[in-house]
Amino acid sequence: MRLLSWNCQGLGSPLTVQALKALVVKEKPDLFGEASVFHLNRRYLSHTDPGFVWRPPDPGVLQINIDGAFKIGSHSGSTTYICCDHTGQLKEGFTCEAEASTTLQIEIQALNVTLRHLLQIGKSVDPLIIDTDCLQVVQAVYFELKYHAPQLKRIIADQHARLVEAQERLLKVERKQAVLDERVDHAIQQHEILDERIKCLRKLPVAHKKPLSRAERDFKSELACAATKKNLDGYYIPKLSVFHPTFIQDPTWAVQTSISSKDFRTFFYNQTLDHFNYRPESYTTFKQRYIINSKYWGGANASAPIFAFLGDEEPIDSATTGAGFMTDNAAEFKALLVYIVHRFYGESIPYGWTLDKALKDANTRGYFSSAQALADYAEILLYLKQKLNAKHSPIIVSGGSYGEVMLAAWLRLKYPHVALGALASSAPILAFPDIMPRDTFYSGVAKDFQEASFSCHQTIRRSWEEIDRVASEPHGLAKLSKTFKTCGPLESSSQLKEYLKSVYVEAAQYNDPFRRPVEVICNAINGASPRNDTLRKIFAGLAASDRNSTCYINPPPTPPSQTELGWHWQTCTEIAALWSITNNTMFQPAPSGLDKFVTGCKRDFSIAPRQHWISTYYGGQDIKLVLHRFASNIIFSNGLQDPFSYGGILKSISNSVVAVYTAKGSHCLDIMPATKKDPKWLVNQRKTEVEIIRKWIATYHADLRKGTSDPKGVSEVNAKDPKLGDDPDSSECSAVGSS
User: Fold this and answer.
1) What is the pLDDT of residues 409-427, one digit of tens each?
2) Is the per-residue pLDDT at 566 higher than 80?
3) What is the DSSP string of 25-69?
4) How far is CA 527 from CA 517, 519, 524, 532, 539, in A?
């Protein structure tokens, strides 16, 4: 880029101009090329040559106006330059204060400052057209160009390198400071925890301060590993849901338990990737997270029980307070509480990957199955018993919904030597193909609404045809979008219908006695103005179900949750419980959509669901006959408001495989934290479950004492008794009563 510099306000003379031209052309032609010099002093030109007219430079030439202003009677002034193109548009500008004692000095500084700035921003100075006020200034400029330009460039480069180095050092210091801050916070937390424990120990009577066993001492020291993500071995650690998606239960549920978060300790176990093969990659391990609360544990010496909550299709954290049945009864049983995260959820994902990444890898996602998860739980629980020297501490497993169907109840059936008993809350163990009718689920939803309000039920039933009718009209989808305040325009009527269907299903599934969501929706539908048409009544119910929303349906896209990602895989492999809708419900009749579902699974994972694998691997056909012959110590609890209860066990199978249900209960309500507002029927349901578990443990301890007097544990086995094992009630827990 060519540069043209001129001074339009100075008092230069033709001699200065000629001297500058001679100097530039003669002394340094290779630097400036064929330089042209114009004297553009307006004042001079106006007096000497009024006919001379200055013209803008050619395109591609930049004009720079350099000037200095000296304050008379002071030791300071200012320098300025303005850079314009041939159209007069301002490209760059620069101004600064300067110290000087004469006009000459300030002019020299103006040119020096301009030159340095041009070198910094990388502007070319070849060829240069320049004018100034005096010959001395021209000489100074020439001197700067000839002797100091390379040096200035080196200085600038050196300063830039030093700045980059200083920034890198600062980042390292900030990282170290963050690590130190984190360690200090952790140390403070540990100190507070130990302080609280010491205070509690000091309050205990001397007689209660029993010396800890060696295993308990080891476990106490290993608790410190949790905060640093170490497992107990000391290594560093790199929809069927229990809870309502919008968990707005009674507010007291969140604070009922007296157990604070500091009572829960997180650990990581080096879990085997593949329990059922012996290929080299099967022995790969990943970090599986589990949480322990030892506040109420009576210890291994007392053979105090272990209550284990088996995680389902979500991270485990909400269960530590949300699944209150364990914490509410831990003190009474002096139980150790253990919460284990399901593989591929939370932080328990192989290779430290995200779930999204793991599901995109065909080899890795193949290890994501219920059978592998059950083996995980068994391995961790046996490891804990060995590590705590708690060989004779009985384990009671619990959970909810999928956590029970696939995990707690079936852990008891598959690993009876690990779990003494299981509490299976809202476990649709029969909700699989060829075991029960496909229409029972939506029939159960409709039944809840019909019992709440027949007119509400009928309004919902009429709404589906009305939605289709409006959608078929010109601009019909736009009308529906406006009526239902959708977050984005509807693309089809099915979008609206599927959304409404999910609202009604969730309301029925979690229709607890505190929020009563079915009643809330029906009251809004029935309470709408009689002048409102059917669809406006339906919208009133929708708005009542979620008063915090400003729009409904078609919300802005958000990244899918772990539950959505993982459950999609699980239903595409083995949990293929698809429901159909018949004419006798409040919904539009619809087939199960198996073909469409299979197509989606093949598209996303290149596999089709194994629809009958669940009943093959875990059973389900002739359930009463089968479980009556060999199963024991399982509670199947249900609330009949939950449509999944139609796939559950509602009748006791034996004295120790017991059904406990309530007519007004909802999904997993019995394992939620107890509150003062609980209805009597819910209190009685929990008391029944606690009493059954107490009998299991009492029977176990009685058998244990017998085994202690008989070291070999075989005195009760009479090989000559042909009836041994023929009677299903002769099992170790046959004395346990039914509901």
Assistant:
1) 999 999 999 999 999 998 8
2) yes
3) HHH-HHHH-S-------HHHHHHH-TT----PPPTTEEEEEEEEE
4) 15, 12, 5, 10, 12
3-state helix/strand/coil string of 560-601: CCHHHHHHHHHHHHCCCCCCCECCCCCCCCECCCHHHHHHHH
* DSSP alpha helix (H) spans, 409-492: 409-414, 440-452, 454-472, 476-483
Q: Position of tokens 């059950």?
A: 374
- How many Å apart are CA 415 and CA 378, to the nearest integer? 7
Residue 47 clears pLDDT 70, i.e. is over it:
no
Look at the block and give the residue holding tokens 């937390």.
189
Please report which helix (H) or strand (E) contains residue 158, including its range.
helix 149-203
Q: Residue 419's pLDDT is what?
A: 97
Could you report the per-residue pLDDT of 345-401, keeping only the tens digit for each? 999 999 999 999 999 999 999 999 999 999 999 999 999 999 999 999 999 999 766
Which pLDDT does position 93 carry in this prediction?
A: 73
List phi, psi (to 5°) of 290.
-145, 155
The answer to whether residue 454 scores a pLDDT higher than 80 is yes
Give the tokens for residue 272. 């085997």
* Residues contacting 132, CB < 8 A, separation 6+: 7, 10, 12, 16, 20, 66, 107, 111, 138, 141
Higher pLDDT, 114 or 332: 332
| Residues 608 and 602 sit within 8 Å (Cβ to Cβ) | yes
Task: Indicate if the pLDDT at residue 260 is higher than 90.
Answer: no
pLDDT reading at 22 higher than 50: no
731 against 60, higher pLDDT: 60
**Under a CB-based contact definition with an 8 Å cutoff, are residues 236 and 228 in contact?**
yes
Sequential DSSP letters for 93-121? EEEEEEE-SSHHHHHHHHHHHHHHHHHHH
The residues near 330 (Cβ < 8 Å, ≥ 6 apart) are 259, 293, 295, 296, 307, 337
Count the Cβ atoms, other than its own, within 10 Å of residue 695.
18
Q: How confident is the model at residue 210 (pLDDT cuts 50, 70, 90)?
A: very low
Q: pLDDT at position 50, please?
A: 41
Residues forming a β-bridge with 76: 99
Q: Position 344: which residue type?
A: F
What is the overall mean pLDDT for the chain?
Answer: 77
Nearest to 402 by CA among 432, 437, 381, 382: 432
As a whole number of angstroms, the distance between CA 370 and CA 6 comes to 83
CA distance 297 to 388: 12
Q: Which residues, other chains included, contact 360 with Cβ-Cβ below 8 Å and sequence gap of 6+?
A: none
**pLDDT beyond 60 at 326:** yes
Is the per-residue pLDDT at 464 higher than 90? yes
DSSP string, 361-373: SHHHHTT-SHHHH
Active-site residue set: 401, 642, 667
Of 241, 249, 253, 252, residue with least CA distance to 514: 249
Three-state SS string over 671-716 comes to HCCCCCCCCHHHHHHHHHHHHHHHHHHHHHHHHHHHHHHCCCCCCC
> And the tokens for 413?
């059936």
Distance CA 81, CA 566 (A): 65
In angstroms, the CA 448 to CA 666 distance is 11
Lowest model confidence (mean pLDDT) among 36-50, 434-448, 566-580: 36-50
> Which residue from 287, 296, 243, 241 is spatially nearest to 266, judged by alpha carbons?
287
Kindly state the percentage of the chain with pLDDT values over 70.
Answer: 71
Q: Can you state the angle between helices 493-509 and 517-527, rounded to 10 degrees?
A: 130
- Reported for 577-582, long-range contacts at CB under 8 A and 24+ positions apart, including other chains, are 577/428, 577/431, 577/432, 577/433, 577/647, 578/433, 578/438, 579/438, 579/439, 579/440, 579/441, 579/442, 580/438, 580/439, 580/442, 581/439, 581/442, 582/439, 582/443
Q: Rounded distance, CA 233 to CA 653, Å?
A: 42
Taken in order of first residue, the domains within the chain and their CATH numbers are 2-158 (3.30.420), 440-611 (1.20.120.980)
Can you tell me whether residue 19 is helix, strand or coil? Answer: helix
